[in-house]
Design a protein that fits this description.
Largest sheet: 3 strands, mixed
Strand content: 15-25%
Shape: globular
Helix content: 55-70%
Strand order of the largest sheet: 1-2-3
Number of domains: 1
Length: 103
């Protein structure tokens, strides 16, 4: 009887493995999309050659919404970072939580 139960549990585990793996792949897909958007925004910020923009943290959620945080020395620098993020392919929205703190 023990062997029948053990065999059944093993068979169920093997049968459900593809379902579990499919769910993980879906999650990985969202992560890759998010990291690509984040990388694009960071590259565009760096391309402006403003050292103040390197102090900005960029995160992207699963819906393509970019979250900016960190600090900038002026309101203009803060607004520029948001504009750059907004004009990046794949971005569906921007939350600008950058604090203005003069050096």
């Amino acid at each position: 009887m023990k062997y029948v139960v053990l065999s059944s549990v093993l068979a169920l585990g093997v049968a459900l493995a593809p379902v579990t793996m499919a769910e993980e792949n879906t999650t990985d897909h969202h992560y890759v999309k998010d990291s690509v958007i984040t990388t694009k925004v960071k590259a565009k910020l760096a391309a402006k050659h403003l050292t103040t923009l390197t102090k900005i943290r960029v995160d992207t959620d699963e819906n393509g919404v970019v979250w900016l945080s960190g600090r900038a020395p002026t309101e203009d620098a803060r607004d520029l970072a948001a504009l750059i993020a907004k004009n990046t392919d794949g971005v569906n929205g921007v939350h600008n939580d950058i604090a203005v703190q003069p050096d």
